[in-house]
Design the sequence.
């Protein structure tokens, strides 16, 4: 038999739908939470910068620990062994690095009223071309990341509905309904709605992941026994992958807080010290995630879960590791609760990502071409744009099979990492020139995309590592180095605008 | 340089030294059956949180001191 019996299915889906209704209520209720003027973009998109350290912690957690961490990393551990653990091993470095520069960015943003990192860049380098270009890079980079969240939502629905008649159709309808509801409450409540949803998401995900660990570890006779009987690739990785492991981690670490939605969530903090406290606590969130990621190895020792996974094609099986354990090892009501946690674990970040895209379009693109845009007009553009981007990503997922989704995050990161010279270095120096930053980022993005295509032999994208003489290396880091070299060299040769004026006047 | 800033620099260096290169890619000593590779990564989340919280509190008491 595949899937669950009809009694269990009803119990599981009822709990799932009931809790989804609670989530939706929180989303709409968010508009009344720490009430402000939702016709103002800063208020809609940054929750009026009123989030304290606890809510900042929950939002950072919900925003950063997405379907990628909850579903895609267990999947890569399942498929690749210990190497896949790179996807969680970087978490403490992410927040240590963010601690260096994001509070500085927060302070600048607070003084000058910035909402996006492009606002900062425009002011710093006095170039609208640069700020528009970087805004577009951020928007495009977010599309595959949102698509990955949707692929996670699909995996949750597909595993609940496995074996039911017309399951595939129900799954598509359910996904569309979930997105209409999500778009509606993001439209009304902005970051406030997402934050309340984030608290619920974080709590349910913690319960789900820790319960899995508590049940699975004893059932396989303890970790020691399980790891000894598993293939050795699960205990340690092949040493030849050390550079791939290290560069993949570092690429994620330096790009993490360049993602527009992470900037949005950070600028929502009510003070720099509350933001710092939120960052300081965030690595703790990685503890249950890392334990759950180890289930990508241990699942091989749980016969019921293995036979559940066998219903899916081998290449896309990994994403079902966590759902398979929830469905086969727990009572149906608990599986429903935990799967809803995983489901909104994809929805909440998708909402914040779409809010960030809306901000960038409204402030850094539309407003530049139509300066007469009022504050309300700006907020309206952002709201409609964020709804549009959600459905664009949804359409993308219906068009591209989900199995391809796992690399989406690392592809987006290759783009977003190119914001580092302007945003990160820009906080400390204005020596770099706008023209140099544009050329450096553009050339690196084109090179990066081309290298991804070459590494995958122009076929299905299954890797973002490029074979180098030193061993496979993450493309994001290679092209970041290219960008830094180009930007520095060009900045050195391009004369300062003020120098030109001086020369002309003499 | 302010003392909290130098402390953050130290914290960042320590955390990167713990993780950035996979020199922890071996099995023994295992903890509760988990290979060293896994438990080292997890234990350091707790240590990193402790270090980062210490920094956050240090920089706050500095800010409070400046306001007075």
Sequence:
């Amino acid at each position: 038999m595949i899937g669950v019996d009809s009694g269990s299915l009803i119990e599981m889906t009822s709990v799932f739908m009931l809790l989804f209704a609670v989530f939706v209520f929180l989303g709409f209720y968010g508009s009344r939470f720490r009430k402000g003027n939702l016709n103002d973009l800063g208020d809609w998109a940054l929750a009026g910068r009123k989030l304290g350290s606890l809510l900042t912690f929950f939002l950072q957690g919900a925003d950063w620990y997405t379907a990628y961490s909850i579903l895609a990393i267990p999947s890569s551990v399942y498929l690749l062994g210990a190497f896949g653990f790179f996807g969680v091993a970087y978490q403490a470095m992410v927040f240590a690095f963010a601690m260096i520069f994001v509070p500085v960015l927060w302070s600048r943003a607070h003084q000058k009223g910035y909402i996006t990192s492009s606002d900062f860049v425009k002011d710093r380098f006095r170039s609208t071309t640069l700020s528009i270009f970087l805004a577009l890079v951020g928007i495009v980079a977010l599309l595959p990341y949102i698509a990955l969240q949707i692929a996670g939502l699909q995996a949750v629905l597909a595993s609940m509905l496995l074996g039911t008649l017309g399951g595939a159709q129900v799954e598509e309808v359910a996904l569309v309904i979930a997105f209409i509801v999500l778009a509606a409450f993001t439209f009304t409540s902005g970051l406030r709605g997402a934050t309340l949803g984030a608290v619920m998401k974080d709590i349910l995900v913690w319960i789900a992941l820790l319960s899995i660990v508590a049940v699975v570890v004893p059932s396989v006779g303890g970790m020691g026994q399980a790891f000894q009987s598993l293939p050795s690739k699960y205990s340690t990785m092949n040493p030849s992958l050390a550079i791939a492991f290290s560069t993949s981690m570092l690429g994620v670490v330096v790009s993490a807080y360049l993602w527009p939605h992470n900037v949005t969530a950070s600028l929502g903090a009510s003070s720099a010290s509350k933001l710092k406290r939120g960052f300081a606590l965030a690595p703790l969130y990685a503890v249950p995630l890392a334990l759950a990621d180890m289930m990508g190895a241990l699942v091989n020792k749980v016969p019921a879960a293995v036979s559940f996974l066998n219903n899916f094609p081998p290449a896309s099986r990994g994403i079902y590791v966590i759902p398979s354990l929830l469905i086969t090892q727990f009572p149906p009501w608990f599986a429903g609760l935990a799967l809803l946690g995983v489901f909104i674990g994809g929805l909440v970040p998708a909402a914040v990502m779409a809010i960030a895209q809306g901000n960038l379009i409204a402030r850094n693109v539309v407003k530049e071409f139509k300066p007469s845009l009022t504050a309300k007009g700006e907020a309206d553009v952002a709201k409609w744009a964020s709804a549009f981007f959600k459905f664009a990503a949804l359409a993308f997922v219906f068009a591209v099979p989900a199995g391809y989704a796992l690399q989406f995050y690392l592809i987006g990161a290759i783009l977003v990492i190119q914001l580092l010279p302007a945003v990160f270095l820009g906080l400390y120096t204005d020596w770099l020139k706008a023209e140099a930053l544009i050329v450096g980022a553009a050339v690196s993005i084109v090179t990066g995309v081309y290298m991804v295509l070459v590494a995958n032999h122009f076929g299905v994208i299954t890797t973002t590592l490029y074979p180098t003489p030193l061993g496979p290396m993450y493309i994001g880091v290679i092209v970041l180095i290219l960008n830094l070299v180009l930007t520095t060299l060009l900045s050195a040769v391009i004369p300062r605008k003020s120098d030109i004026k001086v020369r002309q006047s003499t | 340089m302010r003392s909290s800033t130098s402390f953050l620099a130290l914290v960042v260096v320590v955390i990167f030294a713990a993780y950035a290169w996979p020199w922890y890619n071996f099995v023994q000593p295992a903890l509760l059956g988990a290979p060293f590779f896994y438990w080292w990564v997890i234990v350091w989340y707790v240590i990193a949180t402790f270090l980062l919280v210490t920094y956050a509190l240090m920089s706050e008491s500095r800010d409070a001191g400046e306001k007075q």
